[in-house]
Design a protein that fits this description.
The chain has 363 residues and is α/β, with parallel strands linked by helices. The protein is built from seven helices and 17 strands. It folds into three domains: 190 residues, HUPs (Rossmann fold); 55 residues, SH3 type barrels, CATH 2.30.30; 83 residues, Translation factors (Elongation Factor Tu (Ef-tu), domain 3, Beta Barrel). 24% of the residues lie in helices and 31% in strands.
Length: 363
């Protein structure tokens, strides 16, 4: 065996298969699992969650079958401070966050990578569907989309640094989900039969507002639904329960036709509703910029970008407006550009970088 490499094992089929692939690549893998909750887990209506006790046992079983060491690290405090608290604070401020981005940045490639380095492990492998290449011309590590784009996860990794990438391995980037499950089945991993989780690990039932109330211990008062002219249309149940583009659960009827959330105004405790045509933006501004393919963007750069995880990138022009800010102008208006979400831009299959959306600008 060669270098010792940590493998982030969540107990799912992807990370367990990644451990086997790392071994096949000549590394000596060490399974490492993050335990992110202090007491039990946020199990709602019997739904299993990521990083649950069952998942830890599944990761341990896979490590045993592979004959590799396995360690569990307790990161409940940093998970709360870096992921759960900001999640609640964003909703309070009228933004819609993507906690997986924060978890990757601060926990998986932050606290877990640091612990692996302290143990003398030279790499950290994960089960993300993405490819990593080193470009000798620029001297930079590049993140590229997975070969099978329907599984690509580069969007949630835009915030990684060159230092973090220099320690990273992504063995699943060239495989399909079916191929990964077939390997897991052949190796006898119990995860081969597990369902793929679609929800945020700490909100397994998808009720974000209920989680925020439990997490903060606060009550969020009702307030007005307004139309674009300021006319009151009804009452909302607390600003934390809404996101831009939302239609379901509004409970408002209007002679204006179907209504959607256009804007959340936490200072006024108001939610603005509008018709679908009012949800489109030609451009947006974003901050917390992180570039991977280059150190900075010079001038107006022709790229493709997406403003949500599950969408196809759209042609646009990206202009860096400050050390960590950008303006993105799309060829065609984009629906429901949402503050708090990420805009991630691509040059072909190379992920150039991304930023956190501050505001969409009307057509």
């Amino acid at each position: 065996m060669g270098e010792r490499a940590a493998v982030a094992m969540s107990g799912g089929v992807d990370s367990c298969t990644a451990a086997w692939l790392v071994m096949q690549a000549g590394y000596a893998p060490v399974g490492v699992t993050m335990k992110l909750f202090d007491r039990g887990e946020p199990d709602v209506n019997g739904e299993s969650t990521c990083c649950s006790l069952e998942d830890v046992e599944d990761a341990r079983d896979a490590a045993r079958r592979l004959g590799i060491p396995h360690y569990v690290f307790h990161f409940a405090r940093p998970f709360r401070e870096r992921v759960m608290d900001p999640f609640a604070e964003d909703y309070e401020a009228g933004r819609t966050p993507n906690p997986c981005i924060d978890c990757n940045r601060w926990l998986k490639f932050g606290a877990l990578l640091q612990r692996a380095r302290e143990l003398g492990l030279s790499k950290l492998a994960t089960g993300h569907y993405v490819r990593l290449e080193y470009d000798t011309g620029s001297g930079r590590f590049l993140l590229k989309k997975a070969v099978h784009e329907e599984k690509d996860q580069s969007y949630v990794l835009y915030s990684l640094s060159q230092d973090q990438l220099s320690y990273s391995l992504f063995p699943l980037g060239g495989l399909s989900k079916e191929e990964v499950r077939a390997i897991a089945q052949e190796k006898g991993f119990v995860s081969a039969r597990k369902r793929e989780s679609q929800d945020i690990c700490f909100v397994p039932d998808g009720d974000y507002a209920a989680f925020i109330r439990r997490h903060t211990g606060k009550d969020y008062p009702s307030g007005p639904f307004l139309d674009e002219s300021g006319q009151v249309l009804g009452r909302h149940s607390g600003v934390i329960g809404y996101t831009v583009g939302q239609r379901r659960g509004l409970g408002v009827s209007s002679n204006q036709g179907r209504l959607y959330v256009k804007e959340i105004r936490p200072v006024e405790n108001a939610v603005v509703l509008a018709g679908n045509d009012s949800l489109f933006s030609r451009s947006l501004t974003a901050g917390d910029l992180n570039l991977i393919a280059c150190a900075e963007l010079n001038g107006s750069v022709r790229l493709r970008a997406k403003v949500r995880y599950r969408m196809t990138e759209q042609p646009c022009v990206v202009e860096q407006t400050g050390p960590d800010t950008v303006r993105v102008t799309f060829d065609q208006p984009q629906r429901a550009v949402t503050p708090g979400q990420a805009v991630v831009f691509y040059d072909g299959d190379t992920m150039v970088g991304g930023a956190r959306i501050q505001k969409g600008e009307a057509i």
